[in-house]
Design a protein that fits this description.
With about 350 residues, the protein is α/β, with parallel strands linked by helices. The protein is about 35% helix and about 15% strand. The protein has helices spanning about 1-15, 25-35, 60-70, 90-95, 110-115, 155-165, 180-185, 200-205, 235-255, 260-265, 270-275, 290-300, 305-310, and strands at about 35-40, 50, 55, 80-85, 100, 115-120, 125, 125-130, 145-150, 170-175, 195, 215, 225, 230. A hairpin with a 5-residue loop joins strand 2 (about 50) and strand 3. Mean pLDDT is about 90; it is low at about 1-25.
């Protein structure tokens, strides 16, 4: 447990020591260079991963595309920078990237000590642990004394230690920097279990030759609200990123999709009219064209479309909407009014 704390605190200390004094006016700079630069995971199916042609896709990449569509009316005007857990915050602090769309948990410490701020949630997750079915257990409470593979510099480490301590259980952390290397160590029996966000576990399990040989245990070690982060002190850019997310959620709630968005331009629903820029001049406050949300929906889709395309039943991950369903369907996704 001391190992976990030492590594975690050391990682945070490095991030804090880098300072945060990057200039504001990110939107103007993005417009000048002609594209938005997004920090993403180095390779996590469903969230951000490159295909055989080097084309990036995933729910976090689609958020980046949505930002590009809102600014330029063209979802292709983006670039991604793959980042490890150790690189992600420093890259944003230094201005190497414009926005961190990589799956990162919003926490109080991150909002108050790094000079960064969470702009919303695009996936509600929880941390869990995956084991081999051959281990013969069906609960994390049976892992007393087990070796657990975990990445350093993440909320995952502390959550793991907290959960085992609160359940009066012991464990041996096997701290490995790279997620792929951690998974290989798990497969090679260097550890009894592998812990990360459950969505990540599902992606890694789906990538195996025999996914049914692995089970994700039912316990939730934490709450993991994942979403984009931006630098503090640039409210204009913060608001743009936040309202891109809201537009995708509002579009799903009102049934506006990439397939029917042109027909919806004729809708007599005032909410739909404002979302699509038919009325209300809702782009002005964001320094965008009034068709900013229309462009997001037309070119990228609403939140439900993005989820289904990257994480849902048609994909190898086959994740249920769960907490990520709309509030009307029992989930937590609740778009703020565009009015």
């Amino acid at each position: 447990m001391k190992i976990v704390k030492t590594i975690l605190l050391g990682s945070v200390a490095v991030l804090m020591s880098s300072g945060v004094t990057y200039a504001a006016e990110t939107l103007d700079k993005v417009k000048q260079k002609g594209f938005v630069q997004c920090g993403v995971h180095v390779g996590l199916p469903g969230f951000s991963i490159a295909d055989s042609k080097g084309q990036w896709g995933g729910i976090d990449v689609d958020l980046c595309k949505g930002i590009a569509a809102a600014i330029f009316g063209d979802a292709t005007k983006f670039k991604v920078t793959p980042l490890t857990t150790q690189q992600r915050f420093t890259a944003l602090q230094s201005g190497e990237i414009d926005v961190l769309t990589r799956n990162s948990t919003a926490t109080m410490a991150r909002d108050t000590t790094l000079g960064l701020i969470s702009a919303g949630v695009n996936y509600y997750d929880s941390q869990g642990v995956m084991v081999k079915k051959s281990l013969g257990i069906d609960s994390a409470t049976e892992l007393d004394g087990a070796a657990i593979c975990v990445q350093p510099g993440t909320t995952t480490e502390l959550n793991l230690a907290d959960w085992f301590r609160s359940n009066n259980l012991n464990f041996n952390p096997v701290v490995i920097n790279n997620p792929d290397e951690a998974m290989r160590s798990f497969l090679a029996d260097r550890c009894d279990g592998f812990t990360t966000d459950k969505s990540g576990l599902a992606a890694m399990r789906a990538a195996q030759a025999n996914p049914d040989d692995f089970i994700i245990l039912p316990e939730d070690f934490s709450k993991e609200p994942l979403g984009p982060m931006v630098r503090q002190g640039d409210e204009e850019w913060f608001l743009l990123v936040r309202w891109v997310l809201n537009a995708m959620n509002e579009a799903e709630e009102y049934g506006v999709t990439s397939k029917n968005v042109d027909d919806q331009l004729k809708s007599d629903n005032p909410n739909v009219q404002r979302i699509l820029g038919v009325s209300g001049e809702m782009g002005k406050g964001l320094k965008l064209d009034d068709k900013w949300a229309y462009n997001i929906i037309k070119q990228v889709g609403n939140y439900g479309e993005v989820f289904d395309r990257n994480l849902g039943e048609p994909t190898p991950l086959k994740l249920e909407r769960g907490l990520n369903a709309t509030w009307k369907n029992g989930g937590l996704m609740y778009g703020w009014p565009i009015r």
